[in-house]
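User: Could you walk me through two proteins back to back? I'd like the raw sequence and the structure tokens for each, with a short line separating them so I can tell where one ends and the next begins.

Assistant: Of course. Protein one, sequence then structure:
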Amino acid sequence: MIYIRIMSTVHDVAGVDLNLVRVFCALLDEQHLTRAGTRLGLTQSATSHALRRLRRLFADPLFVRTARGLAPTTRARELSEPVREVMRALERCFREQEPFVAAQAVRSFSVATSDYGSFVLAPPLIERVAREAPNVDLWLRSLGASFEEQLVRGDVDVVVVPTTKRELPVGIRSRPLYRERLVCLVRQGSQPKKRLDLAAWTSLRHVLIAPGGTPGGVVDETLAQLGKRRRVALSVPHFLLAPHVVASSDLIVTVGARVAQAFAELLPLSVFEPPVKLPGFEMRLYWHERHHRDPAQQWFRDVVRSAVEPAPPAA
């Protein structure tokens, strides 16, 4: 509870009409009852009533009549600067929120995502931010055990991860970014055919990307529904390690198409469509409610969204 000590009396701020602050400042400036009321859009009677309330509140006449108008008392002069500061603070509180000007901003934004998310998001995001907001810095952070807790604690501004099926805490917002399909990567020349049938595909030695270190996934689940199995010859914890391993071996890996196409341009790799229809996944943007209406955060979320929008199809 906040209190104001006035003379020997303590007043609870909750019981003080803040409109009296406006009246006090107007009287200080105009030193005239009618002119102060006109400035505030009040009648002379209403202004006079407000002055009486101020006098009771501060236990002081505050303004005394002279030949030139109303002269502030010693107490009013003592209160002048503190009350004006209160008025300035109130004006700042109720002023319309200023828009975020990216070109003039000097600050940083943080994103938590996986190595896959960083690989897909970072290059276009860096380019877009550098073009629109040259003095804005980016921090790419690792995902914690619970990305929701990272947002709740304020450790990061946004999180980019596959859509989660678990229930989210109150205050977490999200929107879809893009859908990703799954394709296969093999070393160039290791497979003579451009498309593998199911038998040939399952006979190969597969790489499993298991960030959590547990077996299984959409490929194994799909094969199980068909009564088939594959051999997982290698399990790795990181998405970006698998293409390098495949490029120097006869292994095959199933990854998101964006990662596959990018690595096929960097390494001696070929991209294959899997012989069975595999469910893709949706990447989603998460943020906390407290940032939802902040203009700077709104701009940044729009930049993240546009950075990973699919390019228009070639003619």
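----
Protein two, same layout:
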Amino acid sequence: MIASREIGAPLTTRVLRTGVEVQQIACDWRDLFHHSRATAFQSPDWLLPWIEVFSPHKIMMVEVRLAGRLIGLAPLLVYPRNSERCLAFMGGGVSDYLDLLVDPAFESEVIREVLKAISAQEDWTVLDLTDLPHHSSLLRTPLFQDHSREHVQCSVLRLPQSTKDLLDIFSQRQRANLRNARSRLQRAGGGVIEIAAARNVSDFLDDLFTLHTSRWSGQGQPGVLADRQVREFHKSSAPRLLENGLLYLSRLRVGNRTAAVIYSLRLADTTYCYLQGFDPQFSSLSPGTQLMFSVISDTVRHGMRTFDFLRGQESYKQHWRAQREPTFRIQLPRAALSSAHAAQPATILGFFGL
């Protein structure tokens, strides 16, 4: 345990190595999550099921507490890659943004303590932090500025203040397409948009699994939801996310059949459009487009200002006039951190930009 009193109160850092230790801090983790600028992918309702299902080989979660209160959490792990042992964030493979959680009032203190803690660990050789959002505090750390670069592109739509103004951000042709699709749906007998609740969230997921996998298999590819562990992860995480107000799972029903499903996450002023699927037999009714517009409209009605289509450059995202926004990747060898940790205290502070 590393202790410091530089900010006038006991500051302690601990490295958690087991799933049991991580589970024990779930309540404090959730409190910190709601006080940080983390994305929905750093929620304990997302990452705890990830740990349970994917069973990472070596957990290295770093917690920082101020007078006993959790003010920082770095959900890290170590995994082998060729001859290297990579220190990376948990959640890889199913998460579009990865990052640490920091109380904004103690950003510099938390980053300093996390870096000191991981530099003291000897079971990794290279730091590889991927999918960092542009607002990550790590990207403002001088140590990392020469070691960060753009990673993948996300697509983000900035929203107006009212649903009346929403249509104005689309072209006249897009507005006409929406009206025509709505008319075709009405002539086909109409449709009903449903929102998942605790009693039926599993049914919604089953529809999503079926439609998403069918779409990708039609292109000769398995699709991410064809993986058993990924489906198990979502079956485990969705009820927890729903209970804590983070999941917004919707579907469009035509008659007694599901024509489209959209799985999204919501936090603060942002809706994250995570996965979707639609039945190609209803393609003439544009069910995916109609459901997407409904989800975007509901985002505006709830006072949210950002609709994030997440990573990938699929053409439909540009159809909604989303703007590209990169994530970032930080890579550097352990030796760089170890040399800073071994330096004099004044040198360490300058090295970390603190």
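Residues 160-304 form a domain with the Aminopeptidase fold (CATH 3.40.630.30).

Let me know if you want the two compared in more detail.
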